[in-house]
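Contributing new complexes? Match this layout with flavin-adenine dinucleotide.
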Amino acid sequence: MWSARLWRYLQCSMKVTSERYCTSSARYPGMKRGNFSKVTEDDIKAFESLIPSRVVTDPQEIAPHNVDWLKMVRGSSQVLLKPKTTKEVSDILTYCNSRRLAVVPQGGNTGLVGGSVPVFDEIIVSTSLMNQVLSFDDVSGILICQAGCILEHLDNMMEDRGFIIPLDLGAKGSCHIGGNIATNAGGLRLLRYGSLHGSVLGLEVVLSDGTILDCLSSLQKNNTGYDVKQLFIGSEGTLGIITAASILVPSRPKAVNVAFLGCESFSDVLKTYQLARSMLGEILSAFEFLDDFSMNLVEMQLGLHNPISKQPFYVLLETSGSNSTHDEQKLDVFLEKVMAQNTAQDGTLATDLSKIRAVWDLRERIAEALMCCGAVYKYDLSLPLPKMYELVRHMREKLGDKVTNVVGYGHLGDGNLHLNFTTNHYSDEVLNLIEPCVYEWTANHRGSISAEHGLGLKKANYIHLSQSSSSVSLMKGIKQLLDPKGILNPYKVLPH
Ligand code: FAD
Ligand code: 2HG
Ligand code: ZN
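Output block (do not edit by hand):
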């Protein structure tokens, strides 16, 4: 049996060189395999009887499910299960719980905190075949679907009916709605549509002992006791497997415009944001920023084109509304003002689809460009806006030429900074210079060490920096209550 290994590869879209990153015992000293059973031949037979022909034991087929998107963590699971129905998920968990077999739920495997892959030999339960839309009501805009539906497929289907999924992110082509809900993903339009805690009306969840928890309500108002489904939104597969969701889907905006602006300083970015909120109000649907270091990356690594003159900071601002003339007028007045006030030095407006897509690519594809640079050290933080870029500068100064890139970008309108570092090869020395410094700096400025990606394996031991000890104790109690044997996604979220 393998021990868990954490790996990092030098990866580029053209070449992937497999360089061993480091073992779990080196990266997470003291982390030991839990007291779980090991999978036997009898277990495989039992799974075969529960989901015939959907029990994968071929190492080659399992391999991509053992490694995360960042190529940062690698598990050594030997079994991948592909249920199609809630009953099958229930049968699987009933069996695993009785045998004390650990399980990792997996959606599209695009998570960025090492939560979606096994640490040791946990059984992988994939939602990839749970991809049925169960119902959609055009009047109420309520969609009910299985957890394995791919976000982009759902959005395409909604577009045909004049609706929009209230969540959008760069991984939309692969991530599953169940994975999105399990991570409480934020994404590019949280500013407009709010978090999944508001858009998800109901969930169906299978608990660790196989119990099917039916909270699949389609009501917008339901004040009958505790709102139990909320517990599972953002629980990262540690409390239950989400099998279906009911989502409130808004009408698709008829008019969408994107402005891309260049600013001389971060304080000008903030002034632009303030102005955008007051002048664009209800039509503002996204306010993202990137620094010039991020722009250099997407230009150099992906060959993307910066449509405006070079500036230290860039803002991507989107408006979505129902009346294009009205929206364009508002946007014109706003753009005149930011230019007149010199808060933006240059800018361009995108109104046709291909130009809108090209501008969005500059922002959405930074994560992809980073993967071409060797080893990536990724941080996803909530910070008070005036402090947001101070941290980037502080770390750039601290790390000097020990790193090849320090880039700051993110969902400024949500107070969410994405801070990334790269080196040609993974370095423990660099990691130790970054962590816990970044987390402590964030906590000292009353931020959160995870704005939207979750804690997973990577940040579980730092939870105390963003949650009080009483909250962490309560979380442990909830985990104990719902999963007394601890079989669901062990080593994740709560301190190892
Ligand atoms: P996975 O990666 O498979 O799983 C994520 C976690 O959820 C794991 O802990 C897993 O065990 C658990 N899980 C998965 N499915 C279930 C289920 N059915 N029931 C219970 N637990 C489950 N995140 C953002 O918030 N905003 C962004 O803008 C954003 N952009 C991204 C861009 C890129 C290019 C990439 C690669 C990732 C991005 N992410 C972003 C991170 C990631 O959280 C999201 O991609 C997504 O929410 C993960 O969904 P998934 O189906 O891939 O889940
Ligand atoms: C994004 O907003 C994603 O692009 C990824 O959340 C962030 O790569 C990152 O750090
Ligand atoms: Zn993000």
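Reviewers usually confirm one structural detail per submission. For this one: The longest strand covers residues 255-263.
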